[in-house]
Amino acid sequence: MAEIDLSKVLDKAWADKSLPEIMAAPVAALKGVSDRQGDLLQEAFGIKTVADLASLKYARWAQALADLDTAK
């Protein structure tokens, strides 16, 4: 199982929350994502939560392509 330092990827207010709470959090809970950027993600892709962002097929496709590129 992958480990991650939550304080490096989440805003301070979210770093001590449970994983289910984090997945249900607005994308602005991610460090570096503003409320405005969260609004734009919702407008463009219907993304409301961290879970929605994680399941966005376009992001998954892009990650798969990046993985292939680094595997060469």
Give a quick summary of the entry.
The chain has about 70 residues and is mainly α.
The ordered string of helix (H) and strand (E) elements is HHHHH
Helix coverage percent of residues?
55-70%
Count of extended strands? 0
Overall SS class = mainly alpha
User: Helix segment count?
Assistant: 5
Mean pLDDT: 94
Distance between the termini: 25 Å
Describe the fold and architecture.
With 72 residues, the chain is mainly α. The chain has one domain. It is 56% helix and 0% strand. It has 5 helices and no strands. It has helices at residues 6-9, 19-24, 35-45, 50-54, 57-70. It is globular, with a radius of gyration of 13 Å. It starts with 5 loop residues before the first helix and ends with a helix.
Name a few traits of the molecule:
single chain; 72 residues; mainly alpha; 5 helices; globular
Spell out the blueprint of helices and strands.
Layout: H1 6-9, H2 19-24, H3 35-45, H4 50-54, H5 57-70
